[in-house]
Amino acid sequence: MTRLVGGIFCALLLATALVAPVRAQSGTVTEVVGGLHSPRGLAFGAGGQLFVAQAGDATAAGSIIEILNPMAIIPNVRTIVSGLPTIGDEGEFVGVDGISVVGNGVNSALYGIMALSPQATGNAAFGSLFKVNMAGQTQNVANVGSFDYQWTADHSNLWIEFPDANPYAVLALPGHTYVADAGANTLNEVHSNGTIDVLAYFPNSLIRDAVPTCIAKGPDGALYIGTLALVENLVGFGPAATVYRVDPSQTDPTNYRRYSRSRHRGQPVSGRSTDARSDQTATSTPRSSSPIPISAIRRETS
After folding, report:
1. Maximum CA pair distance of the chain?
2. C-alpha torsion angle, residues 267, 271, 277, 279 (rounded to 10)
3. pLDDT for 108-127, tens place per residue?
4. pLDDT digits (tens, 9 = 90+) for 247-297
5. Could you tell me which CATH number the domain at 36-300 has?
6. 263 with 279: CB under 8 angstroms?
7. Which residue ranges make up each domain of the chain?
8. Residue 154: phi, psi to the nearest 5?
9. Is there a contact between 151 and 119 (Cβ–Cβ < 8 Å)?
10. Which site among 4, 33, 182, 220 is 20 to 30 Å from 245 CA-CA?
């Protein structure tokens, strides 16, 4: 699910405006910064600074900005990365969608994930997971979109719209980086050497695919992944979105018949890349006709 992830929000807002009663606001809403171009991701650094991923639009390329004092009356804003690719039309644009910060001080790093895939866009930067240091230098880690697009092609029996890929959320932790793909319906781990493991595939809902869009680490050390399931709500099937719990220590990536440990790096996402490696070779395993096990996933219910 690619365009549906972003475009469906317009329909939801319209439906809400038509049927929802007007309610008084509680609390205080304060604008931190305005005039942004399709902001899709937020992340706080250890020093309290707020990073914003802007996917861009018809008038501006994508970028990542840093708000050094977000609680100030007039915050100090600077651009960390600029010139990131963006794609879209009719007011819906995607580019850099998710960001995550790991580490402290000068040793901290920001990870960004680009939407879609090179196969779908014709642009090798889309689908890339990249790392940014505090000097604004980018390093391409791996192209998750390219990997997942081919993975879904090899497992097209799982969903009628495969092949598809739309990396949407990233969670960077010490020693581990995870990506939720809203098009491939997977949870991936991307290793520092550029190799990728599929840790989980999320099952289809009643009438749509799962569409995982967010990741968080719980106090138990497990990962919690939320799905969209917006179509079911709009067409009257009632709430169908799900939060899943995945314990990475209990997953077996070989169950998902992943690629051999090869790199999908693609091209640098901006002109300021410190990554000089260019190995883009990969070999896929034969397509399987059987469902993929999801033994490490647990559905969280209330």
Report:
1. 58
2. 10
3. 899 999 999 999 999 999 99
4. 998 887 766 644 433 445 444 455 333 333 333 323 333 222 222 333 344
5. 2.120.10
6. yes
7. 36-300
8. -75, -15
9. no
10. 4
Spatial CA neighbour of 246 closest among 293, 203, 290, 187: 187
CA distance 201 to 255: 10
Contact 127, 118 (CB under 8 A): yes
Which residue bears the tokens 């896929």? 284
Q: What is the DSSP letter of 273?
A: B
Where are the strands (E) in the chain, listed by range?
Answer: 39-44, 50-54, 62-67, 77-84, 87-89, 92-94, 96-102, 109-114, 128-132, 138-143, 167-173, 176-181, 186-190, 196-201, 212-217, 223-227, 243-246, 297-300
Residue 86, number of CB atoms within 10 A of its CB: 24
187's tokens: 């949870």
Dist CA 106 CA 45 (whole Å): 11
- State the pTM of this model: 0.80
